Amino acid sequence: MVRYPLLLLVLIASTWRLANAQNNPRLGKIASQLDTMALRGVPVGDTISISMEGPLPEFAAFLAQNGGLNLSVDPGLEMEVAVSFTDAVVRDVLLYLCDAYNLELSLIGNIVRVRSYRPPPPVPVRKPLSLSYDSLGHTLTLRLQSDTLEAVARELSRITGENIVLASSVRQLPVSGFVNAAPLPQVLRQLTESNDLTFEEREEFFFIGPPSPSEPSGYAGETASRISVDRLQVRKVADGKLTIKAVNVDVLDLIRETALQAGADFHLLPESAETDPLQLQRTTGTPNRIQPNEPPGSGRTISLQLKTATFEEVLSYVCRNSHYTYQLIDNTYVIGRRRAEGLRKTELFKFQHRSAKGVLAQIPQGLQDQVQIDSLYELNALILSGSENSIHEITDFLREVDQLVPVVLIELIIIDVQTNRLNELGVEMGVAEGGLPSGGTLISGTEGGGLDFTLSTGSINGILEFLAGRNIVNLGQVNANFYLSLRAVEENGIVEVLSTPRLSTLNSHKANLSIGERRYYLEQQVSFPGNDRPIPIQSNTFQSVDANLFIDILPMVSGEEHVTLEIFFEQSEFIAAPSNAPPPQVSRTFESMIRVKDGEMIALGGLERESKAKTSSGLPFFSRIPLIGWLFGKKRKSKSKNKLLIFVRPTVMR
Fold first, then answer.
1. Cα–Cα distance between 208 and 197 in angstroms, integer?
2. What is the pLDDT of residues 441-482, one digit of tens each?
3. Are 646 and 568 in contact (CB under 8 A)?
4. Max alpha carbon distance in the chain (Å)?
5. In the chain, what are the domains?
6. Is the pTM value of this prediction over 0.85?
7. Which residue from 92, 117, 436, 568 could staple onto 104, CB 3.0 to 4.6 Å apart?
């Protein structure tokens, strides 16, 4: 039951709109759209009361909220609306808006879009041809003024029954001519001659083609005298655009011909034509002839085929990968060599994220050929001088490489642990001329301390007399040159060295650290100058020896949060300090290339060395008796262990 009143309402509204549509077809189209919306369920048949004055978007928002519509207003429609409706149908309100404010509606699903009305372009009215044919005398009379050749040929073929064939390059050319009572061949011949075209009467048809190279006419004739029609065809189409077909045509000839057809002003600088004088070509209606002293061309050819291209687009294609460029100055295209005065440009490019040093060597040579580049390190910039297109190519490249260079913090941990142990026990007896004095150490804290004592002959005889006086044992006396040495030494040592050098450097830049010590030793040299009675002369010179900790690291950051490190490590140190000799050294060298994750610590390498030594000397057999064997000889045991570990941790500072 609900559908019948709705359909009745739609029918009544459609009848009313049909009456209005006869006076305004645009409103009739909108009314039909509203009917379609109603059938789709859009509530455009509801009534609404509103009185407001404000911008259109606010009115549309109120109408959508109270009328249950989905309304979308195009941006830019900010016109003021002043309305006052009482119980008005929504469709009538929408029709009123479209009529009063020049709007139109479109339906997308259940969304109503409101936009500004754009009237369709006017349909061009074809001018009737002034052409008549006498079928009895087979003569034609025509009055043509800038009529299209294709339309003229079509009409002539229709009324005479003859076949007329046109070349594709001349179909849209405008032609003019006045002929009275002449047969068709004569009409076509006069028409083509007056419009610089070629005419050929063949067995089955008449052919009209472009101008022959042997028939120059004005500017185009001068160009055509050097270029075959098959190699260069330029035709102007709608909106001032060009259709071009060129095969191995000189660059300058192509520019001149396209400028002529497009009606563009251009200034051809003398640099673009090698040695020709300054030329100013302005094609603003009547084409200018090329001067007799103009050279044949640039010596560079191009092959090109374009459809519906502007003159500026043609110039951009022609100047690409050539020595020529152009600029639009005061609506005139100035064309010349890239470094010609008026076309060259100077630009200062400042780096924002990296240093300008070393960038010049990284620019591809192909980009530098047409641009002069100088460095200005005080401003961290490069000075570029050349054509605008060439400079843009280089600046695009420089912007790509002008990025933040990561800083890499490299932490090294060097652990060097040395442990040693020494046990020495024994007795030494012997005879020395004059004997040895008594003395030595019983307990000492110095290096090599412990029990190290020597008994002279008197001390030994005193001990023997003491033993004999106590009736313990009587061993007699020893020789006056006899001596006895007792040695019992035990040494334990631990040396632990921890070094934590830190280095920071830019990505792919070397960082090195050198910390060391320098010692001097005395070098003596004796010379004997003279021949008869040489006198020795002694000279003393102090020589230096270095012991260093040297680190050289080259970090390379990859895009996967990994760091590749090239590391060279060398450590040397003194192990003793002799008085008059070069101090002995021990050195460690490490060289490697590794890949480490950002912030991760890894062991570069290590060295662990352990040595054991055991020596003994004494009387045969007796020195090997357990417990008392040390009374008949010496025994020495030594044990040492060295550990060297190197750890590295790179951190990328972002």
1. 7
2. 666 655 556 667 677 777 777 777 766 666 666 666 666 677
3. no
4. 183
5. 3-116 (3.55.50.30), 130-209 (3.55.50.30), 218-337 (no CATH), 345-401 (3.30.1370.120), 405-654 (no CATH)
6. no
7. 117
